[in-house]
UniProtKB/TrEMBL annotation:
PANTHER family: AMINOTRANSFERASE, ASPARTATE AMINOTRANSFERASE. Keywords: Aminotransferase, Pyridoxal phosphate, Transferase. Belongs to the class-I pyridoxal-phosphate-dependent aminotransferase family. Its cofactor is pyridoxal 5'-phosphate. Gene3D superfamilies: Type I PLP-dependent aspartate aminotransferase-like (Major domain). One of its GO terms (biological process) is amino acid metabolic process. Residues 29-368 form the Aminotransferase class I/classII large domain. It comes from Natronoarchaeum mannanilyticum. One of its GO terms (molecular function) is transaminase activity. It holds the Pfam family Aminotran_1_2. Transmembrane segments: none annotated. It comes from the Archaea. Homodimer. This is Pyridoxal phosphate-dependent aminotransferase.
């Protein structure tokens, strides 16, 4: 579906904030299931790192290297098996994706970004901001992306193929074969595969495969510690670039941000070095349990729903209740549950609602929905 917009998109005032503000003004108690803000504790080592930083010498409160603290970049590079010179620490995955998309469009090898439908709304917004055009590839009923469909739509106008795995909003996880096919399609069209992997610690299927597993100069991988460490407010992300694009990306990053937050980066470095893998495993198991709890209650409500293979979200469809903003507001007012309208994510799931499971009140929210629709 070539188009400048998808219905329901509002880039000037994203629907996430509109819905959260509406819920905050409600005259009743509301279970918030709008945004992907983790509700659990960050790693203890991260708090320790912040406390230690407070006592650092004055020079530690000045500008860090623009591309990120050297030790943090080295730690990321070692963990991801890449050259440290290709790593840029960014202001969250949001900036990492911005830099990746700008790099793709600046190559002069096309002005089109291939996106999935449904789509995370900020991707088309960034495409428009950067002067690119959007073309959409529908995902299947389970949210999976068929490489053959991508290959059919890719052309000499394609600057980038942008994917998110585990996916927001569908919960789909792309396996190794899919990622290899997507990189090959990018190579065949002189495009870049941009792989946003911010939910990589929340794979319930065991099939997740990073695009970094494919050796190619035609792929950029973005990620952040926002979800894995429950620190969305710290804004510490990163991108791994091909050698020929990294210098230009560093320049753009410097001109836009100068540099990122030095204390946040130092705390993340401490947490990376000192946090046991059991921390991540426990949070992954918590989210998997919430998926089971929420979908079981949706059965009682007579809903159709997706069972995610990864990420934080469940899509649900209720009979004669399309996923519009008006219906989301009605659920807030009458059921006390705030979700996101499906039409905010494109046309493919406009009859659905998206619920973020990052709340300890998942079961309560599901019971409210069951009562409302029962």
């Amino acid at each position: 579906m070539p188009a400048a917009h998808l219905p329901g998109m509002d880039y000037e005032r994203p629907l996430f904030f509109r819905v959260m503000q509406y819920a905050a003004r409600a005259d009743r108690d509301v279970v918030g299931m709008v945004s992907g803000n983790p509700d659990w504790e960050p790693p203890a080592a991260l708090r320790d790192g912040l406390r230690a930083y407070a006592d650092a010498d004055p020079e530690a409160f000045q500008y860090p290297p623009s591309e990120g603290l050297t030790k943090l970049r080295a730690e990321i590079a070692e963990r991801r098996g890449v050259d440290v010179d290709r790593v840029i620490v960014t202001n969250g995955t949001g900036e990492a994706n911005y830099l990746a998309m700008a790099s793709a469009l600046d190559r002069g090898a096309g002005d089109e970004i291939l996106l999935t439908d449904p789509v995370y709304p900020y991707y088309p917004g960034k495409t428009e901001l950067l002067g690119g055009t959007q073309r959409y590839v529908p995902a299947d009923e389970d949210g999976q992306l068929d490489p053959a469909a991508v290959r059919e739509r890719a052309s000499e106008d394609t600057a980038a193929i942008l994917v998110n795995t585990p996916n927001n909003p569908t919960g789909a996880v792309y396996d190794e074969a899919t990622m290899r096919d997507l990189v090959a399609i990018a190579e065949a069209n002189d495009a870049l595969l941009l792989s946003d992997e911010v939910y990589d610690h929340f794979d319930y299927s065991g099939r997740f495969a990073s695009a970094l597993g494919v050796d190619s100069e035609h792929r950029i991988v973005t990620n952040a510690f926002s979800k894995s460490m429950a620190i969305t407010g710290f804004r510490v992300g990163y991108a791994v670039f091909p050698e020929e694009l990294v210098d230009a990306a560093k320049t753009r990053h410097m001109l836009v941000n100068v540099a990122g937050s030095r204390p946040a980066q130092q705390a993340v470095l401490t947490a990376l070095q000192e946090t046991d893998p059991a921390y991540y495993e426990a949070n992954r198991e918590l989210m998997a349990e919430r998926v089971e709890t929420f979908t079981a209650a949706l059965d009682d409500a007579g809903a159709e729903y997706t069972t995610p293979d990864g990420g934080f979200y469940v899509l649900a469809r209720f009979e004669d209740f399309p996923g519009t903003l008006a219906n989301v507001e009605r659920l807030i007012d009458e059921a006390g549950v705030a979700g996101m309208p499906g039409d905010a994510f494109g046309t493919a799931r406009e009859d659905w609602l998206r619920f973020a499971l990052v709340t300890p009140r998942v079961e309560e929210a599901a019971d409210r929905l069951a009562e409302f629709f029962g």
